[in-house]
């Protein structure tokens, strides 16, 4: 058991860091520095009052909705307030925290970011991550808890974590790469976050507390992001403060944390480390956002073992719906929209061996979409990447879902570095029956995900991948659709197999509509066009689509070849220019030699 003791000799650690990511001046964000300013802290509590004279009640009502929380202005006094200069600083306006978090349109995407951080800690020995709801004792409000037993963060690490744009995750296996996920995800879920972390680095054991409070920044009218942090050395039998400048500055950081966090005393803060162990991290997000109706965006009451998105869950719970709609809403492709347990079960492609995800005390059972497909087939695809990169074949598993006869669920589940980016991406047109019930799974590490990891960057590689997936669906449908009762494309009506139940829900094509028009007329007296179904005479449209895909792929190949040829021409022209330059230098040298030779002869 660790006991607290006031240190005789104050430990001073310089943790200021400089890197290529750090911007100079006031035009961009800079890393959080631990160097304290030698300013007085007298009257600091007065400086934390609302500089605009707005009551706490009205502020809370105005700012508790996430999409409205960016509408605030820094108080004029805050700009010249020197009482807070000694605290941790990141040279960014607080409004940037909110605008940056709007990259997460979906709250589950923000939760997934925090789960990714724990998964990345597997390489540091992490065996679990807990996601749970806790109650804040100050006001009995709900808060989100994320906790893992990874390597934790030392004082320098927690400052990098809470700075903007810094990332040390540059390996081929880690999911995080932009150094922005923690800030965007936490502020997207709630106004405030407090972090507790323990780590052992170079034989020194430390524990740190950091507070990123949007409420504190708004209500005090700050025009700069202030992040109070305190650190302790726990290497010995006693808990010793790590002092960077003065005892007064350390105490000032502690006072800010206690005033704006869910914990009212230093003892309560220290209690949060008791279940962390020798290393690990605990993140508590509080002052969770409300929806437009003034109710918490996340629902904790519908299911004691789940966290749900309230608006989507309410839509899904509508009682009087047709049977087919109810069946569709019970499928994974729909449940992942509102159920965190459903979404987390398919969030990672490969099942973990020594790692568990606990949601509200119950482990999440990982679900493999590919293992549950009927008539599955593995298709290999070699993306045309740059010349410098190593060519790697991408394997796509494709097949019919078990409910293909009744549900029109289709699309590709595309992962990147084991993490789901696009679930059930529908690449075929919505009207045609081709691809009905066909689902695919692949890991596309050759294209880059967007910052919120819910989509991919619209690059040429992405466009080529989409075209390839369309082609894969088309080829699979030609050879496997008859297994589900569909007519093979291009075959005559005499070879038509038994029609599955799903075709009752599709437009009926009769011999009278062989030209693509029904026997019904519109008010103008014109025949109405009908939708094409595989096996009907109008399948020429599908053949044209397939031919267009092939032509597109050939066009992309020609573009690639043209690009490579232009690069070769550029290199040859460069070599030619260098050769001409050397030739000119040699010619000049020869002329000089000749002149010297003539002078000697004279």
From TrEMBL:
Belongs to the MORC ATPase protein family. This is Morc S5 domain-containing protein. GO terms for cellular component: nucleus. Pfam families: HATPase_c_3 (PF13589), Morc6_S5 (PF17942). GO terms for molecular function: ATP binding; ATP hydrolysis activity; endonuclease activity; RNA binding. Residues 1-47 are annotated as: Disordered. It comes from Trapa incisa. Keywords: ATP-binding, Chromatin regulator, Coiled coil, DNA damage, DNA repair, Endonuclease, Hydrolase, Nuclease, Nucleotide-binding, Nucleus, RNA-binding, RNA-mediated gene silencing. Its cofactor is Mn(2+). PANTHER family: PROTEIN MICRORCHIDIA 1-RELATED, ZINC FINGER CW-TYPE COILED-COIL DOMAIN PROTEIN 3. Transmembrane segments: none annotated. InterPro entries: HATPase_C_sf, MORC_ATPase, Morc_S5. Residues 27-45 have a biased composition (Polar residues). One of its GO terms (biological process) is regulatory ncRNA-mediated gene silencing. Its main location: nucleus.
């Amino acid at each position: 058991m660790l006991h607290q003791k006031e240190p005789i000799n104050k430990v001073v650690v310089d943790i200021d860091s400089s890197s290529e990511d750090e911007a100079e001046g006031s035009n961009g964000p800079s890393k959080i520095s631990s160097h304290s300013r030698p300013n007085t802290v007298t009257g600091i509590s007065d400086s934390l009052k609302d500089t605009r004279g707005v009551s706490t009640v009205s502020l809370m009502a105005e700012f508790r909705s996430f999409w409205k929380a960016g509408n605030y202005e820094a108080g004029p006094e805050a700009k010249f307030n020197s009482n807070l200069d000694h605290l941790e600083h990141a040279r960014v306006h607080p409004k940037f925290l909110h605008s940056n978090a709007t990259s997460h349109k979906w709250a589950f995407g923000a939760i997934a970011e925090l789960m990714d951080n724990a998964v990345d800690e597997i390489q540091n020995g992490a065996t679990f991550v807990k996601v749970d709801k806790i109650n804040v004792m100050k006001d009995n409000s709900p808060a989100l808890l994320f906790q893992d037993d990874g390597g934790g963060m030392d004082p320098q690490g927690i400052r990098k974590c809470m700075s903007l744009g810094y990332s040390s995750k540059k390996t081929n296996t880690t999911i995080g790469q932009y150094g922005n996920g923690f800030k965007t995800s936490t502020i997207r879920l709630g106004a405030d976050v407090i972090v507790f972390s323990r780590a052992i680095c170079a034989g020194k054991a430390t524990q740190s507390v950091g507070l990123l409070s949007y409420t504190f920044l708004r209500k005090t009218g700050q025009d700069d992001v202030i992040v109070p942090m305190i650190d302790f050395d726990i290497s010995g039998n006693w808990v010793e403060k790590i002092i960077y400048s003065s005892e007064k500055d350390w105490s000032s950081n502690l006072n800010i944390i206690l005033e704006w966090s869910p914990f009212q005393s230093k003892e309560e803060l220290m209690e949060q480390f008791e279940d962390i162990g020798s290393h690990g991290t605990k993140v508590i997000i509080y002052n969770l956002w409300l929806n437009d109706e003034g109710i918490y965006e996340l629902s904790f009451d519908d299911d004691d073992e789940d966290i749900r998105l309230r608006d989507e869950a309410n839509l899904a719970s509508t009682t009087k719906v047709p049977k087919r709609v109810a069946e569709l809403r019970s499928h994974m492709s729909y449940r992942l929209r509102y159920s965190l347990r459903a979404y987390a079960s398919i969030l990672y492609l490969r099942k973990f061996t020594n790692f568990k995800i606990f949601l509200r005390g119950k482990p999440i059972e990982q679900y493999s979409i590919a293992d549950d497909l009927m008539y599955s087939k593995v298709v290999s695809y070699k993306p045309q990447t740059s010349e410098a990169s190593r060519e790697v074949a991408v394997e796509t598993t494709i097949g019919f879902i078990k409910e293909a006869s009744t549900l029109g669920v289709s699309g590709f589940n595309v992962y990147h570095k084991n993490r789901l980016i696009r679930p059930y991406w529908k690449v075929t047109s919505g009207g045609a029956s081709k691809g009905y019930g066909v689902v695919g799974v692949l890991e596309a590490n050759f294209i880059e995900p967007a910052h919120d990891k819910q989509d991919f960057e619209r690059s040429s590689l992405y466009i080529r991948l989409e075209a390839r997936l369309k082609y894969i669906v088309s080829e699979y449908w030609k050879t496997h659709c008859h297994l589900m009762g569909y007519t093979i494309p291009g075959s005559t009506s005499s070879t038509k197999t038994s029609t599955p139940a799903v075709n009752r829900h599709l437009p009926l094509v009769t011999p009278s509509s062989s030209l693509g028009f029904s026997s019904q007329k519109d008010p103008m007296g014109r025949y109405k066009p009908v939708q094409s179904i595989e096996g009907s005479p109008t399948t020429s449209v599908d053949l044209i689509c397939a031919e267009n895909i092939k032509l597109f792929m050939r066009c992309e190949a020609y573009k690639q070849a043209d690009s490579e040829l232009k690069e070769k021409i550029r290199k040859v022209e460069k070599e030619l220019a260098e050769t001409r330059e050397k030739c000119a230098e040699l010619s000049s040298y020869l002329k000089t030699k000749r002149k010297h030779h003539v002078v000697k002869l004279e």
